[in-house]
């Protein structure tokens, strides 16, 4: 089903794409490019979380931990085993896909908050493995010296601007692929499961198979985002696997609009910059940021994109009765003439 929002249509996407292309020329320093690149990486992971949560109706609280697994796969392979970055990056997606399939086969037998609690526990186990398995993950000593993504020919990703465009390209590709998924029969299957398990099953939909597929696709987005994060930040610590990052991505979905394609993307771009501009308040910035977030959730329960969509629908509904009355009046006039 095609979206009715400006942000989901061609003009909105064109505007966002052009903004991404010209942002480096408007940025006044490399720090701004780094902040935006990091926002893009988390936006990519959030788009994946939105697939399993917004479109399939399963809230995965281990999503941030899967992102950490992807990042640590790249870090361990490149630093400890001198594997080229792009091979390690592909491996991050494969490792997370296999792990996601195993976790999904077990966890998706549960429903609702039982599934969320189970994945919260799985995420915490991943965090403990990363923090305590010193011989593989370096533990609390962190992984440092991760190489930047390898360049192609004269193109090098050592400088912030080139790295920005690399991350931006992956975000564009990831959003385009997600658009293809949600607008396909597979996407409609996921939404049918979200709306009613029983009804979906009565239509012949294999619930377990499709839930696991949605889960795996979702965490692969997180794993690849983690691989990009490792190549962008160049060092890793266990905190990346903490549940805080999953809650951050959930906040991005809620602010932008859960269950929409553009919503998580907008939320992931707006919230980091809002926190950046409140840094002058130092430790008190969350005293301001907290009420702003609460107000957004209360007054915009469907997010920014959801608000626009609901207003669009109301305008359409107001126009439909008028057009119907006009049609009936026209038909009546034609009848009188024939009489």
TrEMBL record:
CDD domains: TM_PBP1_LivM_like (cd06581). This is Branched-chain amino acid ABC transporter permease. Keywords: Cell membrane, Membrane, Transmembrane, Transmembrane helix. InterPro entries: ABC_transp_permease (IPR001851), LivM-like (IPR043428). It is a multi-pass membrane protein. Its main location: membrane. It is found in: Cell membrane. The chain crosses the membrane at residues 12-27, 33-52, 59-79, 85-106, 113-130, 136-155, 162-182, 212-231, 252-274, 286-308.
